[in-house]
Amino acid sequence: MLIIDGDNLAHRAYHSMPKSLRSKDGRPINAILGWTNMLVTLWDNEQPRSVFVAWDTLGIDTYRHKLWPTYQGGRVFDDAIVRQLDLLPTLASAFGFGVGKRAGYEADDFMAAAAIAETRRGGRSLLLTTDRDAYQLVNDTVTVLAPRAGVRDLVRIGPAQVVERMGVLPEQVPDFKALAGDSSDNIPGAKGIGPKAASSLLLKYGTLEAVLEARADSMPTAIAEQLLTFKRVVSMQTEIDVELPETAPPNWSRAAARLRELGADNLSERIAARATS
Question: What is the model's pTM?
Fold first, then answer.
């Protein structure tokens, strides 16, 4: 199953397509066009049994913000992409893909829940995202597809590649991010501990909790508790109900109709042609 970080792909599409692309009535559609084209390319190249698309819910705090109020602080998006992000989940549904979106959770959480559910039913998953948080899900049945340029140049990341890139095992990624920090999510980490030190500590002790126990005499309780909070913040939540899509090709006709409603007439015609080819 191909599991897509919908927001992540939409942002890539938005910034790769001219912002002048608009519908006849003036609505911005560049992210819609780019997202759809990328998705079709992925379908053709990967030939998955089905697709599940996970989404953030913008403008609503998640449980992560409650744990760490400055989580992802400072992120500001253009109104044009926010408007399109509100519409793209309906397009994914029109294609017949599984969709995961719920207030209080992020796309990451739905990706994790979908990947675990697919593994439990005996399947394998490809996770399309540039977010390294997804590395914590990698195992023998889950591979991350990291786009380098568009979606035609994808790096496949398995357990060995996680170790090569981060110096820790996939299951240690949340511990690593809690210790070393993650500027993209506004997680400061432990003062004086960078990536190399974090990976060395985890190589020696295994988990953040074991590191804190070993350093209990020199680490204030408040700092230790904060680091444990960081681990909870960067850990994907898997206990979410997800409905996996059935094995089926995309519903090209229904997707074409939705694209027409969104003002993407030319692309709608190209997608509709796939239904009769």
Answer: 0.92
Distance, CA of 237 to CA of 112 (rounded, Å): 7
User: Measured between alpha carbons, how far is residue 122 from residues 76, 115, 141, 189, 261 in Å?
Assistant: 40, 11, 9, 37, 38
Q: How many residues does the chain have?
A: 277
CATH number at residue 201: 1.10.150.20
pLDDT tens sequence across 155-206:
999 999 999 999 999 999 999 999 999 888 888 899 989 999 999 999 999 9
The strand pairing partners of 142, in sequence order, are 125, 139
Residue 49: CB atoms within 10 Å: 14
First to last CA, the chain: 24
Q: For residue 221, what are the domain limits? A: 165-234
The residues facing 5 across adjacent strands are 54
Q: Is 234 helix (H, G, I), strand (E, B) or coil?
A: helix
Strand order in the sheet with 125-128: 98-100, 51-54, 2-5, 125-128, 142-149, 153-157
| pLDDT tens-digit series, residues 257-269 | 999 999 999 999 9
- Clarify whether residues 175 and 144 are in a common domain: no
